[in-house]
Design a protein that fits this description.
With 458 residues, the protein is an all-alpha fold. It has two domains: 222 residues, no CATH class; 195 residues, no CATH class. Helix 11 packs antiparallel against helix 12. The relative contact order is 0.11.
Length: 458
């Protein structure tokens, strides 16, 4: 097939997609893929904007000191929570969906039972380790009053872990509608429960320790509502659970473990990549400075989500194409993303003051210079998303994992030197800027690696 034929085929695909949307015809493989992608895309957008709105609301209620402690406690709990999955959810949707597609519901249930057993084991071990280490982490490493807040993690880890696992069970049967409804319910629940609870407990003059504890407890209660919803829906709608279990053979268990191990490294590297800056700042600076850093990063995440819509939208197309047609689509998507990212980055830099004042209030004006530097991330993150989508859909995840692990290690090193140097020359705000520069530099190196690997055709 020559290049012209590939382009015509692509035009036909686009016309087919638009026709199916116009007629609401989601029959066939293409229609099902379109419907699933639309649900997933909508869920991601709701999550991004719901998270930003939630962060802004509680930041205004808690003010910088308490908000910084909340961010620190939550980041620590999320890091521990990552050890309770280690690729299990990805394995479930990969192996389970394959068996359901082959009409082997009993074998799919066998994979489900085995993975659920591993999941529960990891959940209880991780929760136990967090409970045992919470006092040391809060009093000796952070030296901040978040001990009781960290104990809430013993509820957060199993509840959130089960939500993620059950959500994947729905996706095994290509039911993406229920996870979307779950996301809507969760965002509404936390936007009502947590702010209302904070306003109620503020009347009693709780200490910082008490307010952070109650905020996280309210946050987990919103997750509990979501878990109840998924459990009820799951009993009614997941069909292969009624099948007779077909136990896994030894070779299948070995293959399952081989699949999970590389994902474990990637997942851990990704989480360290995303949270190490906050965890390290927690040792060196007070809660308010953590809040300034977190506020800026949340705004960057919201801006990047808008532009990152392109990378999410083209994933199904990347997965179906190869050769010159793939390269043409990739270049157009990348160039459009670069153009929009540059515009958004420049815009963020010049309106940073007004955005921070409007969103968070005058108490967070120290966030302004941080957000101005982070405008570089507004440029980098959407471009990274395009390249990650390319590598993932072309099944080059090993190279992606290598880059991610390397960048995560560099991020830790950069943060150590950046925070210590900044603390020495400019105090706590200097330490924050050290983390800012470390984060930007590590993301830039990660992007350079993605670009070089793609050019080499690795």
């Amino acid at each position: 097939m020559n290049f012209g034929e590939e382009i015509r085929e692509e035009e036909n695909l686009v016309k087919t997609v638009f026709r199916k949307f116009k007629t609401k015809d989601f029959s066939g493989t293409t229609g099902q893929a379109m419907k699933n992608s639309t649900y997933q895309l909508t869920q991601n957008i709701i999550f991004k904007f719901g998270s930003l709105a939630f962060t802004i609301i509680i930041a205004r209620l808690l003010l910088p000191d308490r908000m910084g402690l909340y961010n620190l406690a939550l980041a620590t709990i999320v890091l521990f929570s990552s050890f309770s999955d280690l690729g299990i959810s990805s394995a479930l949707i990969t192996f389970g969906a394959k068996m359901v597609g082959l009409k082997r519901q009993g074998k799919a249930k066998g994979y489900l039972k085995k993975l659920f057993k591993w999941k529960l084991r990891l959940v209880f071990i991780t929760s136990g380790i967090l409970i045992a280490s919470a006092y040391f982490i809060s009093e000796y490493y952070y030296q901040k009053p978040i001990f009781y807040a960290l104990l809430v993690g013993a509820l957060y880890i199993p509840i959130v872990g089960l939500i993620g696992f059950i959500e994947q069970i729905f996706k095994v049967e290509e039911n993406f509608r229920v996870p979307l409804y779950k996301e809507i319910l969760f965002q509404i629940s936390r936007l009502i429960i947590v702010p209302a609870g904070i306003l109620f407990f503020l009347k009693f003059g709780l200490s910082e320790r008490g307010m952070v504890f109650m905020t996280l407890l309210l946050f987990v209660s919103a997750y509990a509502v979501t878990l109840l919803f998924l459990a009820i829906k799951g009993r009614k709608q997941i069909r292969f659970l009624d099948a007779k279990t077909e136990e896994l053979e030894f070779g299948e268990i070995v293959d399952l473990k081989k699949f999970i191990y590389p994902l474990t490294a990637t997942a851990m590297a990704g989480l360290f990549f995303g949270y190490i800056d906050t965890l390290m700042l927690g040792h060196f600076v007070s809660g308010s400075f953590i809040a300034y850093y977190g506020a800026a990063f949340s705004l960057v995440g919201g801006a990047s989500a808008i532009i990152g819509f392109i990378s999410l939208a083209v994933l199904p197309i990347f997965a179906k194409k190869n050769g010159k047609a793939l390269e043409g689509i990739f270049r157009k998507s990348r160039d459009m993303t670069i153009f929009l990212s540059l515009l958004a980055g420049v815009f963020t830099y010049f309106v940073a003051y007004y955005v921070v004042k409007f969103a968070y209030g005058v108490e967070y004006l120290n966030t302004v210079p941080i957000l101005k530097y982070f405008s570089i991330l507004v440029v980098l993150l959407p471009i990274i998303g395009i390249y990650e989508g390319y590598f993932t859909t072309q099944k080059k995840t090993k190279k992606l994992a290598t880059l991610l692990v390397t960048s995560a290690i560099l991020n830790i090193i950069f943060n150590v030197f950046g925070i210590l140097y900044g603390l020495k020359v400019a105090g706590e705000m200097g330490a924050v800027f050290g983390a800012v520069f470390a984060t930007i530099l590590s993301r830039f190196i990660y992007l350079v690696g993605l670009v070089r690997f793609r050019r080499k055709g690795v």
